[in-house]
């Protein structure tokens, strides 16, 4: 049986050391992407981006979304082209608000049960170079927003603060529920 505490940063399965590579490639990525789609949907609704679907569970994020009037651009899973080489240049969601001159780098991880606080710190440090480069290139204030949820739904004390910094109405319980349902789905696949 898989030990949830060994859950590596399953964002795009980089360096995934899962004991079951088949599940790691499909199920863990699906759990991660479902949480990202939920966040993306709420952000799009708040920033007046035209949505194809009415409900968040039907939402399939596009690579680039622009609000009406071009005030906000939302990038999903896109690399940032910089003047210099930056190894970590692809957060899950990038929100660029041209009117307020701010940029948010949102990176999601569904981590092991006890890794939540550690992962938050890692995410902030991981995107430090990219944050500096975006501020220089785009002339915007940039911040990293780590969205780290444990496989069983646990979150850090700072989680609500991070979620409240993003545009959109994000219910912490719904994000936790999405992560837990993804974990339950994986258990069903393993045990049945």
What does this structure look like?
It is a single chain. The chain is built from five helices and five strands, in the order H-E-E-E-E-H-H-E-H-H. The N terminus is likely disordered. The protein has a five-stranded mixed beta sheet with strand order 1-2-3-4-5, sandwiched between helices. The chain has a single domain, classed as Trna Endonuclease, Chain: A, domain 1, CATH 3.40.1350. Helix 1 runs antiparallel to helix 5. With 192 residues, the chain is α+β, with helices and mostly antiparallel strands. The chain starts with 20 loop residues before the first helix and ends with a helix. Strand 1 and strand 2 form a beta hairpin. The longest helix has 26 residues.
Beta content: 15-25%
Q: Assembly type of the shown chains?
A: single chain
Taking Cα atoms only, what radius of gyration do you get, to the nearest Å? 16 Å
Termini Cα gap: 12 Å
Instruction: Sketch the topology as an H/E string, one letter per element.
Output: HEEEEHHEHH
> Based on DSSP secondary structure assignment, what is the total number of beta strands?
5
Structural class by helix and strand composition = alpha+beta
CATH class: Alpha Beta
Numbering strands along the chain, what is their spatial order in the largest sheet? 1-2-3-4-5
Percent helix, as a range, is: 25-40%
Major beta sheet summary: 5 strands, mixed
């Amino acid at each position: 049986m898989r030990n949830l505490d060994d859950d590596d940063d399953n964002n795009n399965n980089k360096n995934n050391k899962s004991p079951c590579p088949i599940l790691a490639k499909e199920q863990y990525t699906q759990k991660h992407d479902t949480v990202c789609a939920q966040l993306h949907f709420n952000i799009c609704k708040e920033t007046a981006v035209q949505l194809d679907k009415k409900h968040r569970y039907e939402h399939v994020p596009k690579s680039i979304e622009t609000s009406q009037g071009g005030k906000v651009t939302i990038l999903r899973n896109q690399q940032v082209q910089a003047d210099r080489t930056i190894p970590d240049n692809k957060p899950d969601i990038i929100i660029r608000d041209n009117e307020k001159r701010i940029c948010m780098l949102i990176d999601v991880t569904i981590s092991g049960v006890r890794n939540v606080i550690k992962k938050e710190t890692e995410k902030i440090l991981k995107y430090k170079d990219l944050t500096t480069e975006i501020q220089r290139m785009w002339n915007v204030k940039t911040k990293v927003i780590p969205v780290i949820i444990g496989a069983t739904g646990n979150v850090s004390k700072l989680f609500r603060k991070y979620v409240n910094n993003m545009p959109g109405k994000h219910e912490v319980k719904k994000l936790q529920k999405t992560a837990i349902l993804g974990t339950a789905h994986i258990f069903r696949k393993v045990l049945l």
